[in-house]
Amino acid sequence: LSPKKKPRSVSCRDEVRNDSFLQSQLSQSGAIAAQSITEEISKDEAKRVVIERACPQWKENVEYSFRRKDSEGLENALNEVKKERQRLKDARDRILQAFLERSSTLDVYETAIEGSLKRLAEKKNDST
């Protein structure tokens, strides 16, 4: 998955808006839920750094989902996220399989070369 290639519905929104304006559009329960999510991510430094590198406006994106009044749009967005997660899992599985295949091949070559070197060393010792 290329970091430059992001699905339309899953892409990071890069528009910058005033935080107070964003907060004013959230219901009280939406604001609490969005704050809970952002606080949870902020507690995990490694996760926060990765998310901020991929999407600097991630907090606004969380709030955006809670400002939405259209459940059909949210369902569509959720389906896109799930599809992207499955594509990512599939890519990970293919990469892991290729890694394991390459590692196994290198193990065979290493064993063969070490065996050949050992054979040559024994032959040299026998002739001296």
Short précis:
The protein is mostly helical. The protein is built from 5 helices and no strands. It is elongated, with a radius of gyration of 26 Å.
Task: Estimate percent helicity.
Answer: over 70%
Query: From N to C, what is the helix and strand string?
Result: HHHHH
Tell me the radius of gyration.
Answer: 26 Å
Distance between the termini: 58 Å
In what range is the share of β-strand residues?
A: under 5%
Shape: elongated
Please identify the oligomeric state: single chain
- Number of discrete helical segments: 5
Low-confidence stretches: 1-9
**Taking all residues together, what is the mean pLDDT?**
85
Give me the secondary-structure category. Answer: mainly alpha
| Strand segment count | 0
Structural account:
The protein has five helices and no strands. The chain has helices at about 20-25, 30-45, 45-55, 60-65, 70-125. The radius of gyration is 26 Å and the shape is elongated.
Name the descriptors.
mainly alpha; 0% strand; 128 residues; 77% helix
Topology:
Blueprint: H1 19-24, H2 28-43, H3 45-54, H4 58-67, H5 71-127
